[in-house]
Amino acid sequence: MLRGPRGHLRASVVPAAALAAALLSSFARCSVAEAGERGSSSYFGTKTRYEDVNPGLLADPEAPQRDPRLLQGTCTPVQLIALIRHGTRYPTAKQVRKLRHLHELLRAHGPDDPSVAAAGGGRSLAAALADWPLWYADWMDGQLVEKGRQDMRQLALRLASLFPDLFSRENYGRLRLVTSSKHRCVDSSAAFLQGLWQHHYPDSPPPSVADMECGPPRINDKLMRFFDHCEKFLTEVERNATALYHVEAFKTGPEMQNILKKVAAILQVPVSNLSADLIQVAFFTCSFDLAIKGVNSPWCDVFDIDDAKVLEYLNDLKQYWKRSYGYTINSRSSCTLFQDIFQHLDRAVEQKQRSQPVSSPVILQFGHAETLLPLLSLMGYFKDKEPLTAYNFEKQAHREFRSGHIVPYASNLIFVLYHCEDAKTPREEFQVQMLLNEKVLPLVPSQETVSLYEDLKSHYQDILQSCQDSEECELPKWNSTSDEL
Fold first, then answer.
1. Which of the residue ranges 35-44, 123-132, 206-215, 352-361 would you say has the lowest mean pLDDT?
2. Which of 42-46, 64-68, 248-252, 330-334 shows the lowest mean pLDDT across its residues?
3. Predicted confidence band at 191 (pLDDT cuts at 50, 70, 90)?
4. pTM of the model
5. Which has the closest alpha carbon to 84: 372, 387, 324, 305?
6. Which residues contact 174 (CB under 8 A, 6 or more apart)?
7. What are φ and ψ of residue 447, in 5° steps?
8. Do 162 and 127 meet the contact criterion of CB atoms below 8 Å apart?
9. Using CA atoms, how far apart are residues 289 and 90, in angstroms rounded to an integer?
10. CA-based nearest residue to 415, from 355, 466, 378, 364
11. Which of 50, 54, 271, 385 has a 20 to 30 Å separation from 411 between CA atoms?
């Protein structure tokens, strides 16, 4: 990858057409499009396909991903609580407008400089991009796509096969569903239910969600979009122009500026007409074409793997500082959701101890990457020794916090409560396992794959007892009284 001088680039067209031709030749050999087949498409951050995190699904997307560490034998699962991110979606209207602007920029500058072809570059990548159909429209605005519905149906089939007793036909009417009000989440919950219907009634088309025995999901934004209801987060992070300092600093840093210069050469446009935001939307267009249509578009050929790592880091910086460890309120704003999970688990334990049927054996909650990341951070997961900053990209090459590996489309965090009995003694106990994206998630800080329920509660005692939403999200009260006479 080209290494330019530190600082801002001059507002001019990159002059050497031969440079563009050489770059095109190099990228054709090592582009994101080609590398996608080798798993490098996992650099798309929160826009990563679920199957790039679970490659086994590429061969059979309906086969259950049984982790050998899952409890078996004398332990019976009695409750499952799943927090599920919506499936694959369209770009937002804001992203579509940026892409349209980039497309118009390409057409305005008339790609296919004759000197590039004369240098052996042939028909340029810029020309291919200018001719590539711009099929995204404003109305799409983050809605769930058919691939996203398929993500949910297939996840339902796998979980039903993995936990047949919990997802039994008898329990179908006792499913408890909660969703964010966003259409992509509501539609994801409906597709999940259709997948369960397919599991139980493979020869019968599913009825409408309203006519299903379990009924439609309940919308609860205070639970699934808690960040919209936390005034401290909204004031100190969401609406704070300086909260994402490291994101903006990285955009003007050497790594991003090198990409900016290189892409300007490829697209044959002035550097002054490009920005880090436009570069990022071009990269995400590669991800959308791949995730939605399964197509390696020419946009993927613009970037090599080194570029992908830089652009992934830019996305991770935003998630880190806005949704994770960057500010304490990011994770503390999710304490209501965390406590809600344990209230359900408490109730299941109490009912089982009284020899009563568990009233809600399966609880499904549909939200966003922004729902899962703060919760996982609250629980202490994926925390690096040093914070992610605009200045330590190379040191963070092997970081724990990679949002595409944690919260791709259709990502899921699952709590499984087990009732365990020892045949030799009358002792009974309750144990818990957690799964992230269908893989057992070792517990913090023990790294064990299973925990006694009481031990888990003890570890998170502070959050369960002292993390009150009304206090965490309340802005400090300033003394407005005046000493003036």
1. 35-44
2. 64-68
3. very high
4. 0.88
5. 372
6. 214, 359, 360, 361, 362
7. 65, 10
8. no
9. 10
10. 364
11. 385
Residue 354 structure tokens: 């009284």
Q: Which CATH superfamily is domain 29-466 in?
A: Phosphoglycerate mutase-like (3.40.50.1240)
Write the pLDDT tens digit of every residue in 34-80.
645 444 688 999 999 999 999 999 899 998 889 999 998 789 999 99
Q: What are the Cα distances from residue 181, in Å, to 178, 218, 319, 368, 413?
A: 10, 9, 22, 11, 20
| Other beta carbons less than 10 A from residue 339's beta carbon | 17
SS3 274: coil
The H-or-E segment that residue 420 falls in is strand 412-421
> Is 270 within 8 Å of 334 (Cβ atoms)?
no
Residue 379 CA to residue 376 CA, distance in Å, equals 5
Instruction: Identify whether 101 is a catalytic site residue.
Output: no
Q: Which amino acid is at 260?
A: L
Cβ–Cβ < 8 Å for 229, 220: no
User: Which of 430, 416, 384 minimizes the C-alpha distance to 159?
Assistant: 416
- Per-domain residue ranges for the chain? 29-466
Of 86, 199, 246, 368, the active-site residue reads 86
What residue spans of 234-302 are helical by DSSP H?
245-251, 254-267, 276-288, 298-301
Cβ(314)–Cβ(244) below 8 Å: no
Computed over every residue of the chain, the mean pLDDT equals 87
Phi, psi of 149 (to 5 degrees): -65, -40
Give residues with Cβ within 8 angstroms of 343, minimum separation 6.
none
Three-state secondary-structure class, residue 81: strand
**Residue whose structure tokens are 């001059």:** 10
The answer to whether 417 and 430 are in contact (CB under 8 A) is: yes
332 vs 317: CA distance, rounded Å: 19
Beta-carbon contacts of residue 27 (< 8 Å; ≥ 6 apart): 125, 266, 301, 302, 303, 304
Q: Residues 140-170: pLDDT tens digits?
A: 999 999 999 999 999 999 999 999 999 999 9
Give me 80's structure tokens. Answer: 């499952």
Average pLDDT for 360-377: 98
